[in-house]
Task: structure prediction
Amino acid sequence: MVKVIFKETEDSDDIKKDMAVVDMHCHTNISDGRDTADLMIRQVQKLGIGISITDHNRIAASLEACKRTFSIPGIEITSSDAIDFLVYFYKTKDLEHFYNKYIKDKHLSSRIFNLWKLKWNTEELLDHVRKYNCVITLPHPIAMRPKNSYIFMHKNPKLMKHIHAIEVINSLMHEEHNQMVTEWAKKLNKSATGASDSHVYNYLGKAVTASYASDVSEFLDNIIKEKNIVVGRSLDRFSKLHIKLGILKRNLQW
Result:
């Protein structure tokens, strides 16, 4: 099992200087984030860490990041069942091919609130993703319904065989939920990742995934092989409320 450390990233002695450190889940204003890709990229460069911009059903910001800094090509996608997945690609060309074939113009219409759902159900969506060389991760499993994948996967356990890793620390989730998910990943013998899920630049790096890796391929391989560590904490209640109100506002359908 991946070592999971519930500690502020800046206070952790487990993150070594020669490790690759990546915030693997964040959003820009291309989807439901507040800030531009440029601002997010400059912030991680200031922090001295890498990034994976995982906008909902969008890839422009992720592609930009891959050109400018240490970045994992990524995207957050949502099945018609409202279940979210983070998909990390070894190569940007595979991310682009996947997006153009299975994501672009494949959205379901939303009323009142945008859930970013695609026309594929969960099994279909996973079948499409598995055609590519990638790492499939289950983010924030104990999210509010209908996006609670913890409940969904307990009802559909056969689908978990397609999941490489579970996001065990998400800074927007409650600490006790992150701890529950950590135990779940351990029980299922799944690898683990951590990320801020930041929708604003100033919360980047609050949870990270780290390993001894010199490039994207080695970093992703380390996740599959459980040779990484996860470090981070849940944000305080005020910060989470501030971010979630912004997300709510940006996802309202007028």
User: Anything to note?
Assistant: The beta strands are 3-6, 20-26, 50-53, 74-78, 84-89, 134-138, 165-170, 191-195, 207-211, 229-232. The chain has eight helices and ten strands. The chain has one domain: 3-251. The first strand starts at residue 3 and ends at 6.
